[in-house]
Amino acid sequence: MTDQYQAFAKSPIGKFVIKNLGLPSPISLDRFESAAPVVQGAVLVGSAAKSVFSGEIAQVLSNIHANAYAGNNTELQQAAAKAGLSLSAFNDGDKESKFKAVVFDASGIQDSEQLKALYAFFNPVARQIQTSGRVIVVGLTPESAPTVKQAIAQRALEGFVKSVGKEFKKGIAAQLVYVDQDAAQNIESTLRFVLSPRSAYVSGQVIRVSKGAVVDVDWAKPLAGKTAVVTGASRGIGEAIAHVLARDGAHVICLDVPQQQDDLDRVASAIGGSTLAIDITAADAGEKIKQAASTRGGLDIIVQNAGITRDKTLANMKPELWDLVININLSAIERVNDYLLSNKGLNKNGRIVCVSSISGIAGNLGQTNYATSKAGVIGLVKFTAPILKDGITINAVAPGFIETQMTAAIPFAIREAGRRMNSMSQGGLPVDVAETISLFAATASTGLNGNVVRVCGQSLLGA
Ligand code: NAD
């Protein structure tokens, strides 16, 4: 689907009209291109005194060959030297330098008074962040803070980051990464994601990193040798997920209903994958998925993306519409996961990634069935994560307004509102959801378990 308003906004007359009427002005967001550097521009780094993750942050910046800058900060300079990161000096009062990303380690903030460190670091550079830039605050998971005062101060970071996401505009995305005390070594996949254009439509989010195994990966092909199943892969978001996982090196088994066989074949042949034409609600769906992956070393990743809407107000909803939506969007996912987990259907260090929706967070008129199913998916992730074994993880993405056939069917006025009511003033693309799924699917994402990340451009709904 094309966004005609965005095209109009780029034209000379469009710019004039939009400026004078105070309308939202969506910019063209940077998106990931293979072989491009993780960050295309300078990165400013800072830290509060006694922060504990600066060493790992410096290591990641060194690994991605970042063009990094820092002010006069001895702790940071020592951490950078240890990580082999060369830091250029950023001088107080420099109003000329521009940054593509600004990263601040706030983990050392011990109490509410010390939150001033956020102000002191970000206030002078708030106007020096480029379009499609990134603001990343790394904090200590409040629940793992040693004192109540520190837990409170760390929890406060969320309000700061979410406000920056709303304030900075120009396609700048702001994220908070909470890291457990003992999980510093597990932040690389997350930091690479939030720094890069792969997180184009993710903003105002909190990603929690806990301790997991440390694995060596080829970052150019982070899913090399893995076998993935993507449900609902014949079109829309599922098609984009299949493409991104294949780009990252996985063999993708594209699953959809038999009626979609032609489109399934088209997607699978474009990415060198295979197909599995089944209905995900069938009683033997879990067994069929296991079998399909068995000739390829077993299943490493399952992306539970297939989903439908059947919108009606509750008063007008026939019981079969309720049943259909709950069954496809929630019960089938539970059944397939249960089958795979209790029948050795998922390899060690396997990944389950589910697709929820901001409707499941905010609720939506005419969507009692859909929102119930998608809130259930969030529950599924939350309550399954702690009981998983063998390094298996489960996470979910919650898309907001994504330009697909599903959203093309929404009446014009509601569609336009959905598109603009977010910090990016535009809808997301299927690839934005797919990139976030590939973060959770990544072999290196051992420390991500039980997360729900919204891919919604920081939509106002349910925020
Ligand atoms: P879509 O309708 O374009 O694609 C969904 C795919 O799932 C279709 O190919 C369909 O055939 C398949 N499917 C449906 N029932 C199935 C079944 N029983 N077995 C196997 N496959 C089945 O939708 P989309 O916009 O690409 O959405 C993908 C997912 O993202 C869904 O879970 C949806 O709820 C969610 N989502 C979408 C948006 C959005 O803005 N498009 C927003 C939030 C969440």
TrEMBL record:
Return the Pfam families for the record.
Answer: adh_short_C2
One BP annotation, GO: monocarboxylic acid metabolic process
Question: Ketoreductase domain: from which residue to which, for each copy?
Answer: 226-400
The record's listing under InterPro entries reads: KR_dom (IPR057326), NAD(P)-bd_dom_sf (IPR036291), Sc_DH/Rdtase_CS (IPR020904), SDR (IPR050259), SDR_fam (IPR002347)
What family classification does the UniProt entry report for this protein?
Answer: Belongs to the short-chain dehydrogenases/reductases (SDR) family.
Q: Which PANTHER family match?
A: 3-OXOACYL-(ACYL-CARRIER-PROTEIN) REDUCTASE (PTHR42879), 3-OXOACYL-[ACYL-CARRIER-PROTEIN] REDUCTASE FABG (PTHR42879:SF2)
Q: What is this protein called?
A: 3-oxoacyl-ACP reductase
Which species?
A: Acinetobacter shaoyimingii
